[in-house]
Amino acid sequence: MKSPPMLLVVGCGDVGLRLLPWVAGRWRVRVLTSSPARVPALRAAGVVPLVGNLDDAATLGRLGGLADAVVHLAPPPGQGVRDVRSRHLGRALLRGGRVRRLVYVSTTGVYGDAGGAWIDETSPVAPATARAQRRVDAEAYWRWFGRCSGARVSILRAPGIYALDRDGGDPRERVRRGAPVLNAKDDVYTNHIHADDLARACMAALYRGGPQRVFNACDHTSLKMGDYFDTVADRFGLPRPPRLSRAEAQATLSPMTLSFMSESRRIGNRRLTEELRLRLRYPTLDDGLATA
């Protein structure tokens, strides 16, 4: 009996762990982690952990020739405009020449500010931050990797990832902190995806993603940021967040927070639902919040 193909998951955090049940039995799974402390937990999840650091190419030598497919969930470095981590990983994978499928999870931040307009995957990228520029660089690298190696590369552009059981991604945490949002006049459109649906999107892309194809991995909800958090507050009986004018926000909030309040876009997901044939479990925010 032929053994299942080998899948390498790079950056197996919350979304990676949600992916594992979907690939169990269909793939033999190896997980790259930079933290030796996570090895026991990953073994308990039924996968074989490999310790390696994307910042240190010398630790990635064993990856060459290891996997038939890769799901790359690790973020770029925290500085610069190039993703050297992706390059270190790609060079290691190219030495083996075995990878036939690769899914890279990027961000909708690559589109920059669209002034609240609807956009899709044909819209040009216009990264406004170094963080988004690193993602654009990574996307370009992985597309090159696909052309060079013959692998089918799928890029999933994810917006804000949430789930009520996700560390750092439970929207109730922000509401409970009383973190402010912009008033209605100054507010921006934001986009979201439930963490479980993003994991399922990775699985769908492994099987159905076309070569060097980009997919917006977002749900059907179209809400401004303040309305999003008002919905969360109302659903769980919490005080609605305070509202600030843009001038007040610029005077009091951190540059990182302001960067998320400076880009407004509504993102279409037709490719996700039609080409990848993904039926979202949580197509709206109300569906995702109903899991409590």
UniProtKB/TrEMBL annotation:
MF (Gene Ontology): aldehyde dehydrogenase (NAD+) activity
Pfam families (alphabetical): Epimerase
Record SUPFAM superfamilies: NAD(P)-binding Rossmann-fold domains (SSF51735)
Domain NAD-dependent epimerase/dehydratase positions: 27-217
PANTHER family xref list: NAD(P)-BINDING DOMAIN-CONTAINING PROTEIN-RELATED (PTHR48079:SF6), PROTEIN YEEZ (PTHR48079)
CDD domains found in the cross-reference section: SDR_a4 (cd05266)
GO terms under cellular component: cytoplasm
Name recorded for this polypeptide: SDR family oxidoreductase
Parts forming coiled coils: none
Alphabetical list of InterPro entries matching this protein: Epimerase_deHydtase, NAD(P)-bd_dom_sf, NAD(P)-dependent_oxidoreduct
